[in-house]
User: What shape does this take?
Amino acid sequence: MNSLQEHSWWLKNKPGFKKLEKLLSASFDSLTEEGNRQTHKNLLDSFDWQLWQKGEALLFAREALQEEEYGYLQLLSLQGDSLQVLEHKQPSPPSFWWDLPASELREHLHKRLDVCSLEAVISVEEERWLLACRDSEQKIRVRLEVVHREVFRLDAEETPRHHQTFIICKPLRGYEKSADQALACLHRLLGEAANPDSPEYLLSLTGLHPEQALLPSPLPLHPETPTETALREAAHQLFAQARRYEAGLLFDVDTEFLHQYRVNLRRIRSIFSLLKAALPKEVWQELKPRLSELSKNTNTLRDLDVFLLERSQFLAMLPEAFRPGLEKLFHKVEEERRLAHQQLASRFLSAEYEKNGQWLETFFAEPPLLATPLAVMPVKKVAGQKIWKRYRKICKAGQKITAETPDDQVHELRIECKKLRYLLDFFASLYPAKQHKRHVKTLKRLQTILGNFNDYTVQQEFLLERLEQDTTSELDAALHGLITILYQQQVEERGKVVQALRDFSAQHVHADFKTSYKKQ
Amino acid sequence: MKTLAIYSMKGGVGKTATSVNLAYWAAQSGMKTLLIDLDPQGASSFYFRIKPAKKNWGKRFFKAYENLLKQIKASDYENLDIIPAHLSFRNFDVILDGLNKRKSRLQKILKGMKKEYDLVILDCPPSIGHLSESVFIASDQLLVPVIPTTLSERTYAQLLDFFKQEGYPKKKILPFFSLVQNQKSMHKNTQENLRQSHPNFLQTVIPFSADVENMGEHRAPVDQFARNKPANTAYRELWQEVSRYL
Assistant: This one.
């Protein structure tokens, strides 16, 4: 059943029935009122605008009909084209993709949002006045809706309310001409054509600018900027970004807030430590502990989060009979997580934390000291040197790794790769985007294997610790089973390391890095 | 997509009232429904206030589907579209006549509606001919209103014979009692007899009712003007029962 394209026009004022009736009488026998409806709509996205970033938005609409509530979720393009619709009878919008019943939309949101929660960013309260234009048989030829609404953003209290009125013309199949006639009758009232539900329009109306909330990726650097200046400026932005996640972390909205908080802090820590010679020694010694202090607080909570996020994966690894034992462990870890979150929250609210944060903010905003040779060197020059050196270091260390090399050395190599990754990402804006993408892709292949290898080790350690603490025979069996499987997976991943390293230092990759970063 | 035909060889058995109210309830239940008014008397279009089509129908087969689409009109109710009767619905026979396998032609044309509709209801003219045979082939179920009188009993038996003779599956036939007046002993007795010999009769019975006759005056399904009356309840229950067969 094809529904026909509806069109909307802005109106200056809500017209009275008599006036509409008179205007429409030129083409129709009668105009009838078909009732009023109140519709409540929300525009939804994640805290980091993951839908917006892909040119999409999610609209939640709820309508109070006589008896039952009617609601739906609609995935829209930013321009307002409907991409997917799902009936949603709940009184409030979903928080996570897994709150929805199995559907195409659920899968789509899974892909887009993963563990991130949805929040309502804009509210639209509509009062809809339904009208029908009828012919001499009293058959409806075209439907009209006069909508008066209030639009406001939800990121703060007492935000400005935007009042608007528009009319929707809804053509009916087989009576397309009647829609044109109705519009001709009303042309004196009509303002400009409207696209009132287009997310793009709603965002600009309420003054929301997702692009300003997000850090540009990559961070823009000027090739000639002194390195210390570039470092402070980048850290200043990254730190502001990290602090953006504090509120969500405190309220425990979802696990992504903590994760992103840590990611941004780690980026600050790593660029400073990779380029620490840009600061006088005593300054670095003061900065370093202050930075580690921030992330140290969060380690326990993140470890527990990671374990809990892998719940279904862990359960799937075990035969049915062992699962109840493991479920008990998950319940216990959930409780530990609750406590860890409380602890972290109280640290976040402490005067000490605030003081440290302020110190760092001031430090990043201060003018550079430019007191060391590296501090004054143009950032582009430093970039090439550092990346090329790190790449060669990995290749050299990689050559020594065989199937028999102890795990410790493999872990060290993983950390070297991480450092290279931070360098590539930090300096990305100084190089062609295509080149950056190619190098990151090559590095990522190696990092995935090393990362998996490390994860399996960490997971085993986590479970082994449990084995020492909790001893019900049921759980013991489950833990032994899991550790065995993880060990096998670790061994399997270890087997891929040598080849991956060989690929990474292959002649053509080496040549590519050399031409890209080595001083000509 | 399912196709439901409302069919009777005999006129005046409440066929059109059934088509209109069943289409209405199907649409209300959320099914995207298309009612095709094949009866040249055009009564079901009339009940939905839709003027008969003036446009000419194309005569060639390859245009039949496109022509059909152009005739679709939205009703005043959500999920319900209608193809109104043509002034001379011989045209449908014209379309059907040009075919090699003409009896399955209608079925082929309707297949194209699958993308748009969940249910097609055919309001058929009271006769037996090419058109009715195409309907028998195209429909998943044939809903047959039967007034519990001796005459209707005979007509129903004729339909069964015809199905047997032509090898159409008898399972498609869903008979139900229509325009029933239980104060008449003949109505009562005939119902009992028929239910005994034909256990496939539906449980729901449509009573003889002034409200159904008033549809002509209100030009709307019974639910729109006699919501709490027995006739309305009966049609809603009939739809619920029929939908289990679809």
